[in-house]
Amino acid sequence: MHVLGLDHVNIAGSQELIERCRAFYVDVLGLVDGPRPSFRSRGHWLYAGEQPVVHLTVNERHLSGNGTTAMDHFAFKCDGLEEAMASLRERGIAFELDPARESKAAQLFVTDPAGVSLELNFA
């Protein structure tokens, strides 16, 4: 497997907080609210040019005790899906394979040693 680059960052939180975040990223940083696949969750995909770089997700389970947001995951563009799965199995690292919705891509979900979720996207 080879990591080809950072795909996006996902931030999760309450509806009110996600709307405030959307306003910040759009109004202050100049990202553009754009198309988002039809996921079960609600939220926004914010684009820099043609790339959706910030995903905002309404998800109450990611709220801390003070009601703030949590970093949900980082996503990487990758190649070598079969090689990646074999390597993870060999190392005893748990992963979840999810065929990406509305595309021919696949996604692997793993957790790093610090507990950060990683989404590995394979075209």
Any chance you could write out the topology, listing elements then pairs?
Layout: E1 2-13, H1 15-28, E2 32-34, E3 42-48, E4 51-58, E5 70-79, H2 81-90, E6 96-99, E7 106-111, E8 117-122
Parallel strand pairs: 1-4, 5-8
Antiparallel strand pairs: 1-5, 2-3, 3-4, 6-7, 7-8
Jot down its keywords.
123 residues, alpha+beta, 2,3-Dihydroxybiphenyl 1,2-Dioxygenase, domain 1, eight-stranded mixed β-sheet, 46% strand
Q: What can you tell me about this protein's structure?
A:
The protein has 123 residues and is of the alpha+beta class. Helices cover 20% and strands 46% of the residues. The chain has two helices and eight strands, in the order βαββββαβββ. It has helices at 15-28, 81-90, and strands at 2-13, 32-34, 42-48, 51-58, 70-79, 96-99, 106-111, 117-122. A hairpin with a 5-residue loop joins β7 and β8. The mean pLDDT is 82.
Portion in strands: over 45%
Distance between the termini: 12 Å
Alpha-carbon Rg, integer: 15 Å
Helical fraction equals: 10-25%
Low-confidence stretches: none
What is the highest CATH level, the class?
Alpha Beta
And the CATH topology?
2,3-Dihydroxybiphenyl 1,2-Dioxygenase, domain 1
Summed up, the helix count is 2
Calculate the mean pLDDT score and round it.
Answer: 82
Note the overall shape. Answer: globular
CATH architecture: Roll
Write the element-wise H/E pattern from the N-terminal end onward: EHEEEEHEEE
Q: Using DSSP, what is the number of strands?
A: 8
- Biggest sheet statistics: 8 strands, mixed
Domain count: 1
Structural class: alpha+beta
Task: Walk across the major sheet and give the strand order.
Answer: 2-3-4-1-5-8-7-6
CATH homologous superfamily - what is it? 2,3-Dihydroxybiphenyl 1,2-Dioxygenase, domain 1
